[in-house]
Amino acid sequence: MSRYPLLIDGALQDAEHYDEVLDPANGQSVGEAARASQAQLEQAVQAAARAQPAWAAAADSRRAALRQAAAVVREHAAELAELITREQGRPLHFTQGEVAGVAATFEHYAGLPQAPEQVLRDDGERLVRIVQRPLGVVAAITPWNVPLILLALKLAPALHAGNALVAKPSEHTPLSTLLLARLLKDVFPAGVLNVVAGAGEVGERLARHPRVRHITFTGSVATGKRLYAGGADDFKRLTLELGGNDAALVLEDADLDAIVEPLFWGAFWNSGQVCFAIKRLYVHESLFERLVAALAERAGRTRLGHGLDAQTELGPLTNRQQLERVEALVADARANGARIHSGGQRLEGPGHFYPPTIVSGIGAGVALVDEEQFGPLLPVIPFRDVEDAIAQANASHYGLGASVWSRDETRGAAIAARLEAGLAWVNQHLDIHPGAPKGGHKWSGLGYEGGQRGYEAFSELQVINVARR
User: Fold this and answer.
1) What is the DSSP letter of 272?
2) What residues pair up with 121 in beta bridges, in sequence order?
3) pLDDT value, residue 212
4) Which residues of the chain are under the pLDDT cut of 50?
5) Which residues are annotated as active site (predicted)?
């Protein structure tokens, strides 16, 4: 059985305890992840703190290392993609795209020039300038649904800005991150990149460490709230990308034939395990019955299977807890009068397979509508008045993404602008434009990831004011 060690201070470290990771498609062992002890976590943070000053002073070396990291990822792309599929479940062609995105992210930041200083005054009396300074040690805590790209989106800008980093992946999918750490061991100077693994308490201890100055986290609202509260003790900076309950509004003039496939994938990509997947679908009553039938037909012919099978469209849910969550939501929906048009129960046999499930007959007040399901479930709700649909879409604690579907792009964009979400699309969902910041409103996050706003989160400003005599 393959064992995956930690990366601490430029060296691979074994651990006293290892955690077995199982393939969610068949329950077979994929490998064992080293579980960081409290002493090893301390070593990782202290190593980052020691390495950071020299790293911050070497801008050219930072860009060169990121460029080399992109090359290493491309060289080992097949190995990385297969491992993500085996521990997370997504079909291989999707994980290959994820790994390509990791390399592209490293390459993007390798080509990004350092932020120039801003001169406010330069005359015979004063030189006043603003410079950006790295924060120091950054803790990156990443989720299990898209493990490597969500790490790269934190790691690359943090290191480019001159910080050192300690990463902690989810205990459900740690192996691909530990493999990436092994591959990058000699790319970055010792201590600049450290990777520890383990259950949630490892992340909690990392987040509370006094040497950590910034926490960048993607995951649940509940954990985000704990990190937010815990960070107040020493005023840590935080970037929190949290859950979503994205609404999609299908207007009466939408092209039904054209939207079925993109709506399906907007809801069910990665078996719905995406924070900004479509999780509530509001459809004008004139199209409701036909769209529900079309989506149910598409769901019914979806090919579920192991992600290494080239014919597979959707893989399993990544862990048993998520499968049980989906089953509970469907049971509650049935108890509240739901009509199930496709799916509705887990598949027999090994693996955490649950087919794409189209649900109608429920609305606000039912958990499947009000909460983030993070699985292959889609409640479809009719509306008559678009103002009512907008109000229902906005009546949520969440505000990550939303979309509007209409032949009239101008009208669609005007309605999208009224939706309380950080990401708003027209006639599409899930597309993330390179260079655009990604962040949620309300409970869906704090701060931004990506783009200039996201990059600036990894530095702080210093005003240097020199009197000339």
Assistant:
1) G
2) 128
3) 98
4) none
5) 241
Q: What is the CA radius of gyration of the chain?
A: 23
Instruction: For each of the domains in the chain, give its residue range(s) and CATH number, in order of start.
Output: 3-242+444-467 (3.40.605.10), 246-433 (3.40.309.10)
Q: Between vectors from CA 225 to CA 98 and to CA 243, what angle results, nearest 5°? A: 35
Distance of alpha carbon 362 from alpha carbon 352, whole angstroms: 26
Q: Taking the mean position of all CA atoms in its chain, how far away is CA 280?
A: 19
What pTM was computed for the model?
0.96
What whole-number distance in Å separates Cα of residue 400 and Cα of residue 247? 10
The catalytic residues are 241
Helix axes 77-88, 92-110, angle to 10 degrees: 130
- Residue 381 CA to residue 374 CA, distance in Å, equals 18
What stretches of 138-220 show up as alpha helix (H) in DSSP?
A: 147-160, 175-183, 200-208
Contact of 15 with 34, CB cutoff 8 Å? yes
Quote the tokens at residue 290.
């036909």
pLDDT at 1: 65
Backbone phi and psi for residue 325, each to the nearest 5 degrees, phi listed first: -65, -45
CA–CA dist 165, 2 (Å, integer): 26
Residue indicated by tokens 């990509």 = 269
β pairing state of 29-35 and 3-4:
parallel
Strands (E), 266-422: 278-284, 339-340, 357-360, 377-383, 398-399, 401-405
Under a CB-based contact definition with an 8 Å cutoff, are residues 334 and 343 in contact? Answer: no
Give the burial string for 249-263 (b: 16+ CB within 10 Å, else e).
bbbeebeeeebbebb
Amino acid, single-letter form, for residue 256: L
| Rounded Cα distance, 456 and 163, in Å | 12
What are the DSSP E strand ranges found in 303-376? 339-340, 357-360
Give the pair of three-digit tokens for residue 141: 């805590």
